[in-house]
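Key idea: predict the complex, not the pieces.
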Amino acid sequence: DTEVTQTPKHLVMGMTNKKSLKCEQHMGHRAMYWYKQKAKKPPELMFVYSYEKLSINESVPSRFSPECPNSSLLNLHLHALQPEDSALYLCASSQRWRDRDGNGYTFGSGTRLTVV
Amino acid sequence: QKEVEQNSGPLSVPEGAIASLNCTYSDRGSQSFFWYRQYSGKSPELIMSIYSNGDKEDGRFTAQLNKASQYVSLLIRDSQPSDSATYLCAVILNTDKLIFGTGTRLQVFP
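Result:
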């Protein structure tokens, strides 16, 4: 299995809703990441998890709450989002964080989020 | 100065030609360099990684790295219309963060 699976593929939520994005990989990778990508922009790093511990939070607003329940799963809990949070949310994994000659990050297909 | 810079394009090349994509980075401590391809509405797909100075070839793709000049490039030989996409240069900085350039849009016309 060489895939990163993200669910749901599309999500429309109101500003008062609570929802969660899910990400799963079975490649034995011990680093997982959340990126946010707005239209016609590159992906921007949000969070880094290494061995299920949060290692980097790129000053992301608290309305985004990551969780890594085990080495295969990564969640992103969403609460009280704003319309400007609408974007493609990408999950990625790699063998190790700080692995300078590793095999790069494998990205999931993303969740396209629309906040109304 | 941006951490990873690319020309946004579009770069237009005829089918069968060589497409040359360039990227510069600012962090001299960077060790790992990647090229991703992203089709419209899809997620990035890793096509090349390079860690040492010089060239690395994989099929029609060649990545080139020059750490002294802080420069990475990607050559695509025998370009095909299916290669039309945005190509993202990505660098793992000394802070261990994978950062993307703005991407170069490549158009291959028949």
